[in-house]
Amino acid sequence: MISSDHTRARALGAFYGLALGDALGMPTQSLSREQVHARYGRVTGLLAADADQPIAPNLPAGSITDDTEQAVLVAELLVVGGGRIEPAALAQRLIDWEAAMRAKGSQDLLGPSTKRAIELILAGASPDQAGRYGTTNGAAMRITPVGIASDIADPQRFMAQVEQACQVTHNTGLGIASAAAVAAVVSAGINGDDLKAALEQGVEAAQWGQSRGHWVAGGSIAARIGWSRLLCEGCDNQRLPGLIYEVIGTSVASQESVVAAFALARAVAGGQLQPYPALCMAASLGGDTDTIAAMLGAMLGATHSLSAWPNEPLARVKAVNHLDLDRLTEQLLALRSA
């Protein structure tokens, strides 16, 4: 059992780690590994986006993307609902969020699974049916508040809350398993587990999640996380990013991006990387870099605490985005202890 101060520091580490990873990956998202290297070399800190960045052109260094914004949206719904997310409310908030992005001229819009689900909701489909095709990483990228608000020590309640957060957009075994894996690492870290133990909890939660929701064809998240551990074993920091990019994959598919985040987290657990350099490595991978780094930041922040993140880049992310997650994190922790 850890003290309330340490619990709070780990919860803040998770939420701000998500935002920091998101901001690090913002300028490189949707670029190939070759494009990332040609423009930036290796990412070692916060960078501004180029004018021809396909999703976030000209955004200043430290800007967050949909990963953090939608996680905040989920957190707010959890607080308003006393720990419960109403499916209709989540659908409407996502619709409103995309409308606001369009009004600003942003290309940072809903992902493919979420967009399809929202279109079905607008056409009259039930929340249970709307998410039956969602297999991408949209639920996993915004699940961190559930990991803060729900204790993995009560697996039944924990999985019910994960499933509830996934239902509208990612109501499939793949979608729920990937979200459960990330949320479990966050929740276990807040309980005081070290990263190695928390990652094992993540694999177990992925196994719980794969039998929930609608069945879709695809490799098991839990099995692929286990396979990635064997794949990357003994791989040094020079070879690891290329192996993740070329073999595991870094697309929006849960079986790639979530597994990639776990592979990098495993390197940290083994002492091969420190948390912040691991986020920079995630941002340098190519592909869905903002989401991979965001999920990784949440998991590492929960197990290594807020102190894992350097003051200067974290302060910049807060300032650029007018981001203050302290009060929201306190409210989520209150739900956890309720």
UniProtKB/TrEMBL annotation:
Keywords associated with the record: Hydrolase
Entry-linked InterPro entries: ADP-ribosylglycohydrolase, Ribosyl_crysJ1, Ribosyl_crysJ1_sf
SUPFAM superfamilies assigned: ADP-ribosylglycohydrolase
Family label: Belongs to the ADP-ribosylglycohydrolase family.
Protein name per its UniProtKB record: ADP-ribosylglycohydrolase
Organism lineage string: Bacteria, Pseudomonadati, Pseudomonadota, Gammaproteobacteria, Pseudomonadales
